[in-house]
Each structure stands twice: as structure tokens, then as C-alpha cells.
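Need Cathepsin G's 3D structure for a figure. Predict it.
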Amino acid sequence: MLFSVKQSVLKAIVTTLAFSSLSPASAADAFCGSRLATNKLVNSTANFQNNARIIGGEPAKIEEFPYMGGIVVRFSCSTGFCAGLLISDKFMVTLSVCFYDGSFDRKPSDISVTFGTDINGLETDVQSYNVKKYYAFPDFSPSGESNEVTRIALIELSQPVPKDVATPVRIYSGKVTDDMMLTTAGWGTTSIDRGYELSRTLNKITVSPSSSKYCELEFEFWTGNDGPIICTVVKDNKSVYYRDSGGPLVYTNNGTNLLVGLTFGVTTPSNSNEGEFGENGSLNYFTHLYNYVDWIANVTGIDKSILLDEKQPKLSGDSTNVNSTNPQDSSSSTVNSSSSKSISFLSKPITPLLLAIPLLVLSLL
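Structure prediction for Cathepsin G:
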């Protein structure tokens, strides 16, 4: 897809790769049933990629992230993978883009979820849970309006997940400051030379929020870490990357994990026109979940006091800047937009390297 959006900064290409096909037989297969992998968001100087891998990390046990699950989404001739987080015994949160290939017409039977294991959800010996329905945040569109491509989705499971398999996590409601030590985890690729290969086991890294000027220069929709998007700067070559989308960004308070955000994207080094995604100086971006808590409460019917860690000092103001009372569930398959952007679908890969990756390009005017 090709999208145009007005902006005063220089043009650059940004790739999102949440739905890279796992084993396409040809270029045609790579686009069949999965026209959108994720998004190309444009900003001033560097490439930005959605969906990420943990590189430079260390092995993690699911006991450290007992609310974390793997989501496998089947398209007509490809398969997507995202992480998701359990927020009640029947609901989990992830990114909207994980279900999108031009429309939200995935059936619940196309989606399976695994919990309680370090192993990714593509392993055949892992128990899976059925999905009753999924809800994409209203008005999601990859066409570049505001920060829509970072928005979340909820999965309603067909049956409760037993506490001895997975336990829900509460959402952090306090301020996000640069001195915080946060942890993120995922099953994404573990090194640059492994391409888009999914890690069989879970990995983790520690990161801190950043208020660097590059956070906005590289992604114009970042407005500060208490807004809808959280920014971190890559140090020691430790970064998220391919297929880590939907993974947790957590703050540990007195031994309790609190969910701050969801893994969304990564740039190339912000102080250079060269370099690989995830190298030192790159930026990682996360969707800030507290900004969606009103919508989550409305869809799930769960009181905010149960969803939130109420012991944290609250952010000033209401959490309604991206919230809506009208959920778009899986029975609503058409994404409408009042935007005047030009939209055209790509029909072939851009380069041989990206044969397995359907692309969506956002060009700035």
C-alpha cells in the first residue's frame, strides 16, 4: 500500500514487519492474504520498523513474565506472529496491526494463543487456547493519521486461563520518567545475521525511557513519554526488533511487574544515515498502555481499579486522549477513514531481501 501524509520534515522510509510471512514459497505468496505486514512510517532522517526482535538480550523464563503469551494469526497463505499480555483470565492485549491485512476480517478461528511456556507459539507441542473474539481499537488505520498504527487490540478467549498456567498483569498508571529501569521481552530474532527468524525461546533486555530530541525527530507522533508513545535509546546494542511486536514493557515495583507498554518499533541510529536497525543510537518505541485504559475497561467490562495498579501516583488529567467508547470487534471487517490520503496496494516486493515481507509505505509530502 502506498500512503501519503502531509508533514514538514524530510522524506524517509519506515518499515513495519509484524506480518512477515513465515514460509512463503514465492513473492506472490508473500503478499497473498497478507497485503500488510505492518507500516512504513516516515520521519526526518532514519528508517523506522514496526515489529521487533530482542537482540543483545539474555534468556528469560516465562515465570518472569507469567502473563505473556504468543499469538499466531493465520492468513490465506501466510502466518503472522505477535506477543500478547493477559490482563484478566479471559482478555489479553496486543497491537491492532497484528490482525490487519487491509481489513480486520480475520475469524477468531484464524487465531490461536499460547501461555505458560518459554517456547514460541509456533511449536507443535505447545498447548493453544481458542479465541472467542478480538477487538481492534476504533478507527485504526495504517494511513498515517496521527499515531493510529501504534494502537492496541484486545483478544477475548473462549475460556478462562487457569492461574497455574498464566496470571494477569496490572497496568502501570504512574508517570514514566527517564530514570526508570524497564524490562521488555520477546520471541523475536536474536541477532542481525539471523534475518527474520523467530527465536524458539524467550529473551529479555533492560531499557530506560528517554526524552532525547531524536525521539520526536525520528517519529513525529512522539510527544513525551507520558503520551501515547514511549521512547528509549539503544545502548550496548540491546534492542527490540523483528517479531517482538506486542511484547511487554514492564516496571518492577517491590517485586511486582506492572505493564507500562507494548513493543511497537525501532529505528536505525538517529545520529547517522547509516547503520542497522537496533544498533547503538537507535530508538525503540512502545505503545503507552495507560492511555487506553478507559477503552479497555469499556470493552472488557472490568473496573479500572482492577486493571490498574492503584498505588501509583496518577498522571495529571484523564486518560482519554486516544480512548473511544465504540469498540471495533471482529465482526466489523471494514476500516473506514475520512482522510484524503492517496492509497494504492503494492503487488510485489520492493527488494529480494523483503520477499517474505508484505510492505506498507507511508510517503510524506
